[in-house]
Amino acid sequence: MAWVQIRLNSTNEKAETISDYLEEIGSVSVTFMDSQDTPIFEPLPGETRLWGNTDVIALFDAETDMQQIVRLLRQEGHLDENTAYKIEQIEDKDWEREWMDNFHPMQFGKRLWICPSWREVPDPNAVNVMLDPGLAFGTGTHPTTALCLEWLDGLDLAGKTVIDFGCGSGILAIAALKLGAKEAIGIDIDPQAILASRNNAEQNGVADRLKLYLSEDKPANMKAEVVVANILAGPLKELYPVISELVKEKGNLGLSGILATQAESVCEAYQAKFDLDAVVEREEWCRITGKLK
Ligand SMILES: C[S@@+](CC[C@H](N)C(=O)[O-])C[C@H]1O[C@@H](n2cnc3c(N)ncnc32)[C@H](O)[C@@H]1O
Fold first, then answer.
1. Closest Cα to atom 13, ligand 1: which residue?
2. Does the structural domain 3-100 have CATH classification 3.40.47.10?
3. How far is the CA of 167 from the centre of ligand 1 (A)?
4. How many CB atoms lie within 10 A of CB 276?
5. Domain residue spans in the chain?
6. CA 172 to CA 112: how far, in whole Å?
7. What predicted TM-score, i.e. pTM, was given to this entire model?
8. Tens digit of pLDDT for each residue in 175-212?
9. Which sequence ranges are marked TM in the entry?
10. How far is the CA of 166 from the centre of ligand 1 (A)?
11. Is residue 148 a contact partner of residue 252, using CB atoms and an 8 Å limit?
12. Ligand 1 centroid from CA 84, angstroms
């Protein structure tokens, strides 16, 4: 079967609404790509998106009158004269394969690789985390996840407990376990994240060393030598009393999900209790790390 595709440039705030509307008017599949043409796998219901510009790509049956689709998008205010869009005829393809072809093994730091489960690992002697992008955030394609993975790779985790606050797919907790941590604890507000983390941990053979909690069920007085939290700057500041209490004496803290422009305000919130390292930036994002004083 042949298809026709419309690709339009949008913003993180509008992408979801446009996607809903495209499905309403007959699109059989809507996907998002970021500015690097990397598929965005991680949307969570109601979550603020962490990326900047988003391209919305909608697939329609080849018989669809695409000029009518453009008219409807304009009528609804989803397309104006400043919005770039492109319509393309697409030959029959294995869509799933095409999507899978876009997700490649990625290296973080010296030892760590994140590999889609359907690909061969590039280095069997490396620390390989096998991951299938699911509904929960965290494949390593986002700069904030990458910054946290690189930080974990650089730590000596042997025998340590690691808390992954806002675990999403569980990628950071699982990477920590594979990098030598004794145990990891994943916490998230989203039940989907708990499920995804459990599945991914099982796939990586570390489920017996990963405890998972919904935020509301998190035990009191939990502490770890290493705490990593890749959520947004706002919640990181609000959660300062909670997150800082999770870190054991002289323990390490890694924070991301922070725009570079927000680094100063997050540092201000944490510097009373932590000796902070230099902020590391990647694209418009950054990572803040430090040690409990
Ligand atoms: C940006 S994702 C990070 C996922 C993964 N740790 C990574 O680095 O790719 C943020 C995650 O934090 C969770 N989250 C957001 N606010 C939270 C909160 N207040 N408490 C716990 N989890 C939260 C979201 O549900 C989401 O799964």
1. 166
2. no
3. 5
4. 17
5. 3-100, 105-292
6. 11
7. 0.73
8. 999 999 999 999 998 888 898 899 999 999 999 999 99
9. none
10. 3
11. no
12. 32
Q: How far apart are the first and last CA of the chain?
A: 63
54 is in an annotated binding site: no
Query: Which amino acid residue places its CA nearest to atom 24 of ligand 1?
Result: 166
On whether the CB atoms of residues 287 and 270 are closer than 8 A, the answer is: no
Higher pLDDT, 69 or 37: 69
pLDDT for 1: 59
Q: Please work out whether the CB of residue 187 comes within 6 Å of at least one atom of ligand 1.
A: yes
Instruction: Report the Cα 248 to chain-centroid distance in Å.
Output: 26
CATH H superfamily, domain 105-292: Vaccinia Virus protein VP39 (3.40.50.150)
d(Cα 245, Cα 24) in Å, to the nearest integer? 46
Cross-sheet strand order for the sheet of 85-90: 29-33, 53-61, 3-11, 85-90
Q: Which tokens in the block code for residue 240?
A: 């300062």
What would the mean pLDDT of 136-159 be, rounded to a whole number?
88
Angle 60-62-65 from CA coordinates, rounded to 5°: 80
Lowest-confidence region among 56-65, 228-237, 259-268: 56-65
**Residue 190, ligand 1, Cβ within 6 A:** yes
Total count of residues recorded for the chain: 293
**189 alpha carbon – ligand 1 mean position (Å):** 7
Question: Residue 231, SS3?
Answer: coil
> Is the ipTM of this structure higher than 0.95?
yes
Which residues, in sequence order, are bridge partners of residue 203?
Answer: none
